[in-house]
Specification:
There is one protein chain. Among the domains are: 52 residues, no CATH class; 74 residues, no CATH class; 52 residues, no CATH class; 77 residues, no CATH class. The chain has one helix and 32 strands. A hairpin with a 2-residue loop joins strand 2 and strand 3.
Length: 369
């Protein structure tokens, strides 16, 4: 009962005070609110203070994490870094940035100042983008097989963003009367400067004789064909071998091989060609030494017929050996050449009959009686 009376008396006093204040012009009735007391906390309970967040780290950041990334042409990899967030260290992954000529990226770092660590943001900065150390030795990446009418341009080291990067070689189409000058590096005023490769004009005529011809004649002949021997060709300042080939025979003509002749201090190649020729009916010189044929595995019941030289179209032509089936009471007589009346004549091989040798039986000596 007393509590109700006190509450009613308080409201009356409050109403009277507000009325007096309104008359005095010190209180705005529209904004006046009654005082609300929070009864959730008793006299012995205290509110918990908000947690204290350390906004500046006092311990050094952890060691940077190892990030593996593939190189990207025209870009620079910006390494990740540690960041301080909500009172703890958190890792921020790296990223690619497009290259900027004459500038390099300074990564994020942490420095200790007045007992705390302060982050220094990363940024692009100007620097002298010229190498002061020599480039590494060039890599050996020349391809195994040449490409016709093309020149191999060797790879080279390039300087980019403070370090050397290898640029792979490539094929370039040949240019008549010009040769490729490789990329080089030269020391100038204490720094290394790259001299770009380019095509340059030069006197594309050999002054040294070609090497000895290679022996690239095939083992087996081809009927009605002539083997055209390979030759050395002069290309882009050096000799290159061109392999031989088969050419179909031409009646009344013979092949003249490629050759080099000295003219005005240079070697000039005279191309091979077919020329009119009346072949000699018979050879006037002895045939070359017989070749060593490659025999197949021994065949039972067969005889090996050795190869021989034949005179054909005014030239010596080799006929390889072969296996022939045996003939009873016969043996093979090889081909041979004999000189008769100042010229060489071929005696063909043939089978010749052998008379079997009859061995008489041993004599019987009678026993004495």
């Amino acid at each position: 009962m007393r509590r109700k009376m006190r509450s009613k008396l308080s409201r009356l006093l409050l109403t009277a005070g507000l009325a007096a204040a309104t008359l005095a012009g010190t209180v705005d009735l529209a904004s006046a609110q009654p005082t609300v007391r929070d009864h959730r906390h008793g006299p012995g309970l205290k509110r918990r203070p908000p947690p204290v967040v350390n906004r500046t780290p006092r311990e050094a950041p952890p060691a940077p994490r190892e990030e593996r990334q593939a190189p990207r042409r025209g870009h620079v990899w910006v390494s990740g870094h540690w960041d301080w967030n909500n009172g703890g260290w958190s890792w921020v992954s790296g990223r690619y940035e497009r290259e900027r000529r004459g500038r390099r990226f300074r990564p994020v770092r942490w420095e200790q100042k007045d007992g705390v660590y302060v982050r220094i943001d990363g940024d692009w900065e100007d620097f002298d983008d010229r190498p002061r150390q020599a480039p590494p030795p060039p890599k050996d990446e020349r391809p195994d097989r040449p490409r016709r009418n093309s020149v191999w341009v060797a790879g080279h080291w390039d300087w980019n963003n403070g370090q050397y990067h290898w640029v792979s070689g490539r094929w370039e189409r040949e240019r008549q009367g010009r040769r490729w000058r490789e990329h080089t590096w030269e020391m100038r005023d204490g720094v290394w400067v790259r001299i770009d490769g380019d095509w340059e004009q030069f006197d594309d005529r050999p002054r040294q004789a070609p090497p000895a011809p290679r022996d690239d004649r095939p083992d087996r002949p081809r009927r009605n064909h002539i083997w055209v021997t390979g030759y050395w060709d002069w290309k882009n300042g050096q000799y290159e071998w061109v392999g031989g080939r088969w050419e179909r025979e031409q009646q009344g003509r013979r092949w003249r091989d490629h050759r080099y002749e000295m003219k005005d201090g240079f070697y000039v190649r005279v191309n091979g060609d077919w020329e009119n020729h009346t072949p000699a009916a018979y050879p006037t010189a002895a045939p070359p030494a017989p070749r060593e044929d490659r025999r197949d595995p021994v065949r039972r019941g067969h005889v090996w017929i050795s190869g021989y030289w034949d005179w054909k179209n005014g030239n010596w032509d080799w006929n390889p050996g072969r296996w022939e089936r045996e003939k009873a009471n016969s043996r093979w007589r090889d081909y041979r050449w004999e000189q008769r009346d100042g010229r060489w004549t071929r005696v063909d091989g043939s089978w010749e009959v052998q008379t079997p040798t009859v061995t008489p039986p041993p004599a019987v000596i009678p026993r004495p009686r």
